[in-house]
Amino acid sequence: MATSTVNRPADASRRRFGRRAVGGVGPLGLGIATLWLSVIVLLPLAAISVKAFDNGIGGFIDAIDAPAARAALLVTVGVSLVVALINVVLGTLIAWVLVRDEFPGKRFVNALIDLPFALPTIVASMVLLSLYGPSSPFDIQLNATRPALVIALLFVTLPFVVRAVQPVLMEIDKEVEEAAASLGASNLTIFRRIILPTLLPAILTGTGLAFTRAIGEYGSVVLIGGGIPKKTEVASQYIQKQIEIDRFVNAAAVSVSLLLIAFAVLLLLRLVGNRASRREEQNA
Amino acid sequence: MSTATPDRVGSRVGPSRRSQLTLRTIALTYLGLLVAVPIVLIIFRTFENGIGAFVDSITTPAAISALQLSLLIVAIVVPLNVIFGIATALALVRGRFRGRGIVQAIVDLPFAVSPIVVGASLILLWGADGWFGFVDEAGFRVIFALPGMVLATIFVTLPFVVREVEPVLHEIGEEQEQAAATLGASRWQTFWRITLPAIRWGLTYGVVLTVARALGEFGAVIMVSAGVAGESQTLTLLVHSRYIDDHNTYGAYAASTLLMILAIITLLLMTVLDRKRHSS
Predict the structure, then answer these.
(1) Which of B50, B127, B147, B243 could form a disulfide bond with B123, CB atoms 3.0-4.6 angstroms apart?
(2) Does A68 touch chain B (CB under 8 A)?
């Protein structure tokens, strides 16, 4: 009661003056923020989207259906799917080991997971070249092959699934598992029926983010991937080459396709996430 | 470090000791082959000829110019991101306006866009043939010059300050600011005395993320850089050109190691800041 009487004058004045007095957010602050976001983010993306359709929808389709463009998009999506799947399995496994297992040096290993996010992508490329490139001390030569693309993308997407799953795994109540075990459930059954359903939303989120990161990646694949057209050239390399030779419509069309794929995946994630949280609420 | 007593390990549910060891081996082998061994190798390669060779390699004129350009870009990008990032966060938290969801989505957009698409978009907006081509014609070069590299770096770092400051603003609420306003403080006084001190750790965290990404950005910047050695190369572009153009693999390793040292310093700073942020 007391607080509401204190608040009332402020509320009233806020209504009258359009909350001018608070925090400096009037129409001016909002205007500045909108202008900033528009100039930096929206206008460039608008320019590339319009450019993609310079020759109409037919021109857009022709541009992404050109053999080299189609190959680049297919390689990108294909390799990213492989990377996403490996992340599902090994990302979950690493998260499990980091949460449920105890071994000396665990904290160091845990810190290692963040390194790929902190390293510049071009450094990631150099780091991997030192082991998998021409001067590898173990004579592993993956330079300019598709496995090299997979390794580079696995490196830069490593934290996504691990860091999404880890906190959820820490929260899981072990008593449910113990109860299941005492009722005779096997380890596999416990994992499949109890652990996996709880982790699934987190795994999906991490995987989706890893996938969207992978399809747009450039720096980490540019040196080790080789960029051989129709073989290891990914979409971002194709875009870069088309810009270099002034084929702006081609570059824009492939760029817009990448954006659309990323948005579709992120939208799907949000839908799945909403459904999962709704189901959890119902169960609770 | 290991907290589990043998007793607890024995009675725990979950995989047997043997499958537990198998899982641990798989995880550690994977992380070793993917991250640890390559990083140890690149450090070994960098220092196998002694620290002197490393220092020589990162103090060539081209390397010093690259470091200076990288720092210059950071020095321009950080203040802009701080000012406009705080303004955007304030608008998102304190403003009640239509289309807030859309603004939220726009702030996250840079995370979903490929760096190369960022560069291509900037060329199509600011380039000689772009929508704002008149700026170029008027003699102010944006693309293939410093302004383009700055715009590219701001694009990719835009979410950091906003996303770190926003939750803190939510948490502190408006009571203190309202009290200050009631007591006659001007908007600026309220901001400097109340709001800014409250968000300082979140803001610092956002700035650290911004600096790290600005130093490390490659794809978006290479698209809009003229790429002249000793003039328009950042540290990341130096790594690339040393490896590709100069076939100077050692130089590329050395520059990578320098960037890696900067990245590890960032990680340590983030850990310290994270503790500060949660304790305050």
Answers:
(1) B127
(2) no
Residues A194/A177, Cβ–Cβ less than 8 Å: yes
Q: How far is A83 from chain B (nearest CA, A)?
A: 13
Other C-beta atoms lying within 10 Å of the C-beta of residue A133: 22
Pick from B146, B267, B276: which is nearest to B213 by CA?
B267
Q: How near does any CA of chain B get to the CA of A155, in Å? A: 6
Find, among B221, B237, B226, the residue nearest to B115 by Cα.
B221
What confidence score (pLDDT) does residue B56 get? Answer: 93
- CA atoms of A46 and B156, how far apart (whole Å): 16
- Topology of domain A56-283, per CATH? MetI-like fold (1.10.3720)
Per DSSP, the three-state class of B185 is coil
* A266/B117 Cβ within 8 A: no
Domain ranges (residues) in chain A: 23-52, 56-283
For chain B, the domains span 13-47, 51-279
- The CATH code of the domain at B51-279 is 1.10.3720.10
Q: What is the ipTM of this complex?
A: 0.87
Q: Do A114 and B110 touch (CB under 8 A)?
A: no
Instruction: Please classify residue B18 by burial: count the beta carbons closer than 10 Å to its beta carbon, then call 0-12 exposed, 13-18 middle and 19+ buried.
Output: exposed
- Which pTM value belongs to this model? 0.87
| pLDDT at res. A283 | 66
Q: Which helix (H) or strand (E) holds A117?
A: helix A115-118
Q: A146-171 vs A92-100: helix axis angle to the nearest 10?
A: 40
Contacts of A135 in chain B (CB under 8 A): 249
What confidence tier does A251 reach under pLDDT thresholds 50, 70, 90? very high
Contact A248 B266 (CB under 8 A): no
